[in-house]
Amino acid sequence: EDVLDLYAEPYDPQRPVVCFDETSTQLVQETRVPIPPRRGRRERFDYEYRRNGTRNLFLFCEPLGGWRQVAVTEHRTSQDFARQMQWLVDGAYPEAAVIRVVMDNLNTHRPAALYNTFPPAEARRILKRLEFHHTPKHGSWLNMAEIELSVFSRQCLHRRIGDAATLAREIAALQRQRNEAR
Questions:
Q1: Cα atoms found within 13 Å of the Cα of residue 180, Cβ hemisphere only
Q2: Contact (Cβ atoms closer than 8 angstroms) between residue 123 and residue 112
Q3: 110, containing H or E segment
Q4: Which of 24, 26, 33, 58 is 20 to 30 Å from 149 by CA-CA measure?
Q5: Considering only CA atoms, which of 127, 144, 130 is closest in space to residue 99?
């Protein structure tokens, strides 16, 4: 109910509601050149591939503002989470009084992550601007960021992407397209 109440509130630029979630994606490189599509036939891929590691996607979205931001990172640590929260406060909403963040109860989503990453004064400065609202244990689907991750999965991540640079480029292009469409 806490999360639903937040979603029902009118837009307030001084107290925005921002949804946050993350997922990992596998980098998969082709080992053979795919057969191009022909009339009536889709492109064909060999079953063999080369696994090139994984990348993490941190996604912010503000449903009433109509924007989303995706960061592609090498890891999903508590320090990475803390840096994302710092960006939210300093980069996305430097003028907001408080940013209300909807997220799940992942082990890295804790105020302690900021204190483990930054000096105490910096961690406190960031935390004073954040208000965390966690989805219920089995209700992470209430987080609208999951809807955005689903869109990115269907429109971008469903195919083989072999390296981090290509992944970042593809994610940025879809992010730009969705932000323009609001």
A1: 6
A2: no
A3: none
A4: 33
A5: 130
Which phi and psi (to 5°) does residue 129 adopt?
-100, -5
CA distances from 43 to 37, 48, 171 (A): 4, 15, 22
Alpha helices in 53-119 (DSSP H): 78-87, 111-117
Amino acid at 59: L
Sorting pLDDT into bands at 50, 70 and 90, what band is 20?
very high
Q: What is the pTM of this model?
A: 0.84
Contact call for residues 161 and 54 (beta carbons, < 8 A): no
**What tens digit of pLDDT does each residue of 147-167 get?**
898 888 888 777 777 788 888
In the chain, which residue ranges form alpha helices assigned H by DSSP? Answer: 2-8, 78-87, 111-117, 120-127, 144-152, 164-181
For 51, residues 6+ apart whose C-beta sits below 8 A from its C-beta are: 26, 27, 28, 29
Mark 63-80 as b/e (b = at least 16 C-beta within 10 Å): bebebbbbbbbeebebeb
The pLDDT tens digits of the residues spanning 83-120 come to 999 999 999 999 999 999 999 988 888 999 999 999 99
Element (H, E) at 41: none
Residues 6+ apart with CB under 8 A from 62: 16, 17, 18, 19, 68
Residue in the block written with tokens 């799940």: 104
